[in-house]
Amino acid sequence: MTLGLLLKERMSGWLQLDRQGRQQPFAFQIRAFTTRIFSISAPRYFRGTVNLDGQDFPCEGELTIHLNGPHYWLTFSHPELGQLRVEGKKQYGRNGLLASLVTCPMTVYRTRQAIGQAEVAYRESMLAFPFTALRLVDEQQAYQQDHGVGSSRG
Question: Is the pLDDT of residue 149 over 50?
């Protein structure tokens, strides 16, 4: 049994591809896990789901927490464009403290070329975050979906 820290998070907002020119509803729900519980800046691999304009796609990526804001990257297969990578970083203190704590600007890449942008935000209670999003779990259970405490909608 290998114990680690699981972070469950849902962020939502919009994504705009340069060729389309319109913002589409965009969200991702992730389950990020690490056995390095006391290493805050350790990269946390995650699996989850991207929702783009009402359609769900499996995704995977990495979350790395830095002192000035967490960095996310994720990949998923778009039905028309193939493999896309969405990457961004929260910048604490930029554009107001509260907004910077929850908002993450992102860039959309296809074969390492920027083809769009996105912006997502954490829309649940920041005060409840440590109680609803963080869990100590066995590594074998880290990526199993559940519908109990910590699952978010929004």
Answer: no
CA–CA separation, 41 vs 128, rounded Å?
A: 22
Q: Which helix (H) or strand (E) holds 126?
A: none
Distance (Å, whole) CA 23 – CA 58:
21
- Note the pLDDT of residue 96: 63
- Number of Cβ within 10 Å of residue 64's Cβ equals 15
Q: 120-152 burial string, b = 16+ CB within 10 Å, else e?
A: bebebeeeebeebbebebeeeebbeeeeeebee
Nearest to 47 by CA among 26, 75, 78: 75
- The answer to whether residues 131 and 107 touch, using CB atoms and an 8 Å cutoff, is no
Tracing tokens 């880290």 back to the chain, one arrives at: 142
Q: What integer pLDDT is reported at residue 61 of this predicted model?
A: 97
What is d(CA 65, CA 43) in angstroms, rounded to the nearest whole number? 7
Cβ 45 vs Cβ 32: under 8 Å = yes
Across the range 65-73, mean pLDDT stands at: 90
- From the list 81, 66, 63, 80, the residue with the least C-alpha distance to 120 is 63
- What pTM was computed for the model? 0.85
